[in-house]
Hints:
The chain is mostly beta strands. The chain has a domain at about 15-60. It has no helices and 3 strands.
Amino acid sequence: MAFMRSKQQVEEVEKTDVGIWNCDNIGCNGWMREDFSFSQNPTCPLCNSSMSQEMRLLPVLSHTINH
Ligand SMILES: [Zn+2]
């Protein structure tokens, strides 16, 4: 038996500044990617508060992952 199955997931995650909507409600963690919201003025899905635009460093969404 060989236990050589390496489960090293050393994936270098590329990150980029992404526009997001952040919940205005202090104490609420609600936020969403701008790309995923179709509204000009979205409300928080968690608490229904208004949201403000921010930039956040997030992993690049990629559909082509080559290993
Ligand atoms: Zn919220």
